[in-house]
Amino acid sequence: MLRGAARERGLMDGAARDVGRTTGALQLQKFVSESLDGYVLRYLGILAAFTAMMPAVLDASVGRSSSSDDPTEYFLTCLHLLVNVGMALKDLVLSHKAAAQTKGLATRIATLLDGLEPPPTTGAAPLALAPPGAPLLAVTGLEVSTPGGGKPLLKGVDVELCAGQRLLVCGPNGAGKSSLLRVLAGAWPAAGGEVTWGVPPSQVVCLPQRPYVVPGASLRLNLLYPADECEPIYATSDGALLEALGAVGLTQLRALDAPCDGLSPGELQRLSLARLLLRKPAIALLDEPCASCDPAFEAAFFERCAREEMTLLTVSHRREVAAHFTHRLRLDGAGGATLSSIDTKGDDSSASDDFVHAEH
Q1: Helix 238-247 to helix 265-279 angle, to the nearest 10 degrees?
Q2: To 10 degrees, the CA torsion angle through 47, 51, 54, 56?
Q3: Which of 116, 205, 329, 353 is most open to solvent, judged by the fewest CB atoms within 10 Å of its CB?
């Protein structure tokens, strides 16, 4: 659409040239390294032994040495000993390569294992829903920054979210709204503070702004993702799946076993919301879940969430959705956050101002 084919071709040609140069340099380094390892170190001991033994052999050959009656046997015996010493020195010199390779493999495996570990929690998560009135999520003094000790984004965030409450997160671009959800979902570590869940991880659902779809998989599998039909957390009958599709305006999709391909960004977000309706979690973290959908659909969806008293923590830039939420967390873009109630019966002008600021 931008007619950038020539520019992209030039970039890829430049990348290909860089790959060629790097490959040539690596091949040369590999040749030098293998030559050094396979020949120089291996035969260096033999050459050193031969050089060291030449005077003795010459002395024995002219009868000036009594160390051996047979100079050839004497030379070969000493040569054998020195070759063994040379090979041992070679193994000692090359041991650093084996140690470096082992360290690299161990580091990668440790990174993989750390990634497979469930996100740490500062409080003990019970194996059942929290009692009535108890917070499903409690955030105390939370600090958020980009991973690896990068840019600080938020500090001193205090939030409690109980069953039936719906928290709307708003603020200017770059204030840390999506980063806050990444920390709560366990994708990023918290820079400080405490995050305590009152429900087990299986009762928490996170929907990013860009939904994930398994390429080439059926509509049924994508509706149930990441679970399957054997897990009891979903209503997996065909009728329940079609009802969820109808609730999000995807009535045209009825072939549950057909590949789920060719959907628009808005349809993908609706499909992701259908997963939410099927799973019915205790709490859902939503990052602009309707950004690619029309405002009328977004209002109808959040109206349904309010009617069913779903517990949500949602990032959105549209002021109209505030009427369906109970609380608002406004991020000021300078690391601060302000929590307030939303009066759904009155004119919440402060909420409108926040959304205007966020859109700008």
Answers
A1: 130
A2: -110
A3: 116
Amino acid, res. 104: G
Tokens linked to 134: 């108890």
Tokens read off for 325: 């939420």
Token pair for 247: 């609730």
Q: Among candidates 250, 238, 234, which has minimal Cα distance to 202?
A: 234
Domains in the chain (CATH in brackets) are 5-116 (no CATH), 135-359 (3.40.50.300)
- Bond preceding residue 226 cis, omega within 30 of 0: yes
Encode the chain (360 residues) as per-residue pLDDT tens digits.
767 788 888 889 999 999 999 999 999 988 887 777 667 666 766 676 667 667 766 666 665 555 556 667 766 777 677 767 767 777 777 777 788 889 989 999 998 887 776 554 444 333 344 566 678 899 989 989 888 767 888 888 999 898 889 999 998 888 888 899 999 988 888 888 888 888 888 788 888 888 888 887 888 888 887 765 445 555 568 888 888 889 888 888 888 888 888 888 889 999 999 988 888 888 999 998 888 888 888 889 999 998 988 999 999 888 788 888 999 999 988 888 888 888 755 444 444 344 333 333
Burial 85-107 (b: 16+ CB within 10 A, else e): ebeeebeeeeeeeeeeeeeeeee
pTM reported for the whole predicted model: 0.62
Can you tell me the distance from the alpha carbon of 237 to that of 38, in angstroms, rounded to the nearest whole number? 65
